Amino acid sequence: MAEIILTIALEVAKCLAPPAYRQISYLRESKYTSNLQNLNTEVVKLKSERVNTEHQVDEAKRKGEEIEENVENWLATANSVIKEADKFTEDEATANKRCFKGLCPNLKTRPRLSKEAERQKEAVVKVLDARPVNSISYSIIPEDTLLMPNKDFEAFESRTSILNEIIDALKNPNVNMLLIYGMGGIGKTTLAKEVARKAESDKLFDQVVFSEVSESRDVRKLQGEIADKLGLKFDEESESGRARRLYDRLKKEKRILVILDNIWENLDLLDVGIPHGDDHMGCKVLFTARSEEVLSGEMESRKNFPVGFLKEDEAWSLFTKMAGDYVEGNELKEVARDVAKECAGLPVSIVTVARALRNKSIREWKDALEQLRRPSSSNFKDVQPAAFKAIELSYNKLGRDDLKNIFLLIGYTAIASIEDLLMCGMGLGLFQGVNKIEVARNRVHTLVRTLKASCMLLDHISQKKELFSMHDVVRDVAISIASTERNVFTATNEQVDGCREWSDGSAIKHCTSIVLHDINTNLLPKVLECPQLELLFISDDPWEYSRVTIPDNFFKSMIQVRVVNLTDMDLRSLPSSLGLLSNLRTLSLCWCYLPDLSVVGGLKKLEILCLRDSDIKKLPVEVGELTWLKLLDLRDCEDLEVIPPNILSKLSRLEELYIGPKSFDKWEVEVEGVKNASLEELKHLPNLTSLELRARDVSTLPRGLLLEKLERYSIRIGDDEESNGSWCREFSLDLNDKICLKDSLIVQLQRIEDLELRGLQEQDVDYIRNELVKVGSSHLKRLRMRGLDPALSSAESEV
Ligand SMILES: *[C@@H]1O[C@H](CO)[C@@H](O)[C@H](O)[C@H]1NC(C)=O
Ligand SMILES: *[C@@H]1O[C@H](CO)[C@@H](O)[C@H](O)[C@H]1NC(C)=O
Ligand SMILES: *[C@@H]1O[C@H](CO)[C@@H](O)[C@H](O)[C@H]1NC(C)=O
Ligand SMILES: *[C@@H]1O[C@H](CO)[C@@H](O)[C@H](O)[C@H]1NC(C)=O
Ligand SMILES: *[C@@H]1O[C@H](CO)[C@@H](O)[C@H](O)[C@H]1NC(C)=O
């Protein structure tokens, strides 16, 4: 009560003061208030600018880039200016509070404070003006995920001793080629990765490059991988041109180690563009291979390192690590030790068997031992019987049919991504009781995770969640099992060429799956007589000039087929017999040359059509006849110019539609009176759950678009930026002052996670904020607004 009285008293006193004083003090007071307000406005701008820059910095760092020094400096200055201003306003606020309690600051100090506010405002504006406008980061060599701590490396004596020998050899100026060799699954790759890591951490080289060669011996891919790691971009198309560029670039590195993992035959380093020997003593090359004989030629500058079996105690220690300590318990110990012995010191066997038996009862352990001791059911080339039996056992222990099916499918098709596995598995009907694609996708994620946990699948080199890979020994076993249990036939060009089974068709008749990789000769029969065939994969060799044609009647006698995947083929004349495949569920024609696709109209049961990266120019009207279609993938169809009206709207069962990120964007574009499809058509797709699309013009977006029903979407309007791929609900819009925001667009964005708006007018900003608050944008994780007005040019916030 006393306080209130005091305040009133003060007010009264003011009123009684002479008018002049009141006048001046009023002026001072209002100047002070406006200076303070100006300061606050600028600080808000600077803060959002700082957040924006910080985000850019974070993103650049994620990409492995270095931040420009001026940007770091700017951020430091911005921080200190903001801190000072915040302190000022905070002091001001406490002073005001005290003032409310009747303890006003001396009015005489107001001019000083006012000036201080103005000074600070100017400082803030100066920092704002100096904000980094050019690129904030520069690319350095991206950090190699391989060189991060290597979780697979066990510091066993048998391994560390080789590791140390290799490191010594790398220090020896007279050695410039090294070979680690040993049987599949013995741990060569793991060891080579550890060499890379150690060479890098001990700074033995300025650069360490690790590249997987594998059986396909794809020189171009190899060149690309090495170049990526050096930050080199090729302008050349030809292999030899690229080799020369790479060669020049590598010569500029004083000390570089190139690791080529898993070579299968003698590789001419000069073909790839790797200088070695007297050409460039600073460039050392380390190979891994299954046999010492893959490398021919002079020996004096080369050193070979055999990798052998793990010693018994090492094997046991790895075994208990994978199976869990409980195997050391009295009950299990003996049988577990015997099981471990059967794995013969091969890491790949130990790991898969131990994982398969983890937490299992003693009965199952005994049964496993019995299985491992039985003579091998296969004498598969290149695979040790011990490894074969171990992996076969792990396969049997997968138990569930869906896991086994998926494991074999990944093995013999060499599919490496969740999306492709989904399309293929869905087509084969592998997910029982699942009709919805979104549900199937979750199932696929779970299955892949389970297979990784049992060490039957590995994380992909890139560490991307949607990719995976398989150890090559495990793959060999998977292919072998698939060929005996499921009548699966897989081959590369060389293997098919001159293969009797293939040419006289006797064994092929019973096949359920055929996978032909990297075909470059015309070896397809006129008619493939395969009445039981369910899956057919053919991929053209991307690096050889080839003109593999598919005979017109090729598909005539495979009437049960459910999945057809032709990759990288010249389908100038798409065989008419394709249209007869009335059971076909999944058709994938990625990277194909596809002038005319009208034959697909006959595929009445087709559920999944994937034309990713194909050169299709016009979506044929016959696609409108595919009324069972659930998924249409037109990603990266850069030449796609025409989607005629009333095709998409007929696909009433469509659940997923992908038209991006570099693909058709000409909705409603009209040329000579013929108009392209309209996005309004999407309203006729009641079951759509995933949508990716681009448009040039926001006015083509239908009002009341069904966004709220979509589980996942990425919609980008008016920009060419790529979404980073892991989108869930993302919307990006260039307003370019053409459109009035107030036509209920935003209201639809209920569950949006990532919203980017460009070309905003100042008055729109508050509108959008309010609108977002109104619809309850609780899912919003990221909001980016870029305005026309430079002051507003960028505000970004993490919500
Ligand atoms: C193994 O069994 C133990 C106890 O029964 C349990 O806590 C653990 O989660 C199980 N581990 C696996 C991988 O199933
Ligand atoms: C099609 O085959 C290619 C090459 O074998 C493979 O990479 C891709 O994953 C397959 N796609 C589908 C959808 O099966
Ligand atoms: C949409 O999905 C529901 C539930 O799966 C199904 O009953 C319905 O037939 C589908 N609608 C269309 C047009 O296919
Ligand atoms: C669709 O757009 C393309 C490219 O702008 C144009 O050539 C074509 O005539 C348009 N419409 C149709 C139905 O072809
Ligand atoms: C993609 O962007 C999202 C948010 O914008 C971010 O959280 C995520 O880490 C990014 N992913 C990659 C692979 O850059």
Rg result: 33 Å
Shape, principal axes of CA atoms: globular
Query: Judging by the overall fold, what is the CATH architecture of the domain at 145-306?
Result: 3-Layer(aba) Sandwich
Helical coverage, percent range: 25-40%
Largest sheet: 14 strands, mixed
- The CATH class of the domain at 145-306 is identified as Alpha Beta
Strand content is 5-15%
CATH fold name of the domain at 145-306: Rossmann fold
Summarize the structure in words.
The chain is an alpha/beta fold and 799 residues long. Among the domains are: 2-138; 145-306, 3-Layer(aba) Sandwich (Rossmann fold), CATH 3.40.50; 585-694, Ribonuclease Inhibitor (Leucine-rich repeat, LRR (right-handed beta-alpha superhelix), Alpha-Beta Horseshoe); 696-799, no CATH class. It has 21 helices and 25 strands. The longest helix has 44 residues, at 19-62. The two termini are 42 Å apart. Residues 1-25 and 790-795 have low confidence and may be disordered. Residues 652-653, 686-687 line the site of one 2-acetamido-2-deoxy-beta-D-glucopyranose. Keywords: ATP-binding, Coiled coil, Nucleotide-binding, Plant defense. Belongs to the disease resistance NB-LRR family.
